[in-house]
Amino acid sequence: MADAPTPDEIFERAVEEGKRRLDQSLLELASTSFIAGFTIVLGIVALGIVEAIIEPQFGEVAKIGGALAFGVGLVFLVIGSTELFNENFSDPAAAAVDRSG
Fold first, then answer.
1. Other C-beta atoms lying within 10 Å of the C-beta of residue 77
2. Which region holds residue 81: left if phi is over 0, alpha if psi is between -120 and 50, else beta?
3. Same domain as 74, residue 41
4. How many domains does the chain have?
5. Can you tell me the distance from the alpha carbon of 83 to that of 101, in angstroms, rounded to the nearest whole number?
6. Does 29 fall in a domain?
7. Could you report the per-residue pLDDT of 29-55, keeping only the tens digit for each?
8. I need a surface site. Which of 16, 57, 88, 92 has the fewest CB within 10 A?
9. Within a 10 A sphere around the Cβ of 97, how many other Cβ atoms?
10. Which of 43, 41, 42, 61 minimizes the C-alpha distance to 51?
11. Are residues 59 and 39 both part of a single domain?
C-alpha cells in the first residue's frame, strides 16, 4: 500500500490542477460548463421521476428517494470533471495563492 501524500504534495497537486483549469480556453470552459449544467438538470429530472414513482406508495419518504436520485447528477459532475463555479474551487484558488507568493 502506498504512503499517503504529505500536505505539501497535496498542495502541489492542487496547484498543478488549478493552473491547468485557470489556463483553459474559452471554448473548453464553455463546453465543460454546459455539460455541468446538463448533469445538474439530469439530476433534477431524476429527482422528479423518482419522487413521482415512489410518492403514491410511500408518501413523504419519496423526498428522500428523490434526493438520492439527484445525487446521480452530482456524481456525474465530479466524474466528468466538468466545471461549476463553486465545485472543486480550491484547486484554482491554490494556484492563485501559489502565484501571489
1. 22
2. left
3. yes
4. 2
5. 26
6. no
7. 788 888 888 888 989 999 999 999 999
8. 57
9. 14
10. 61
11. yes
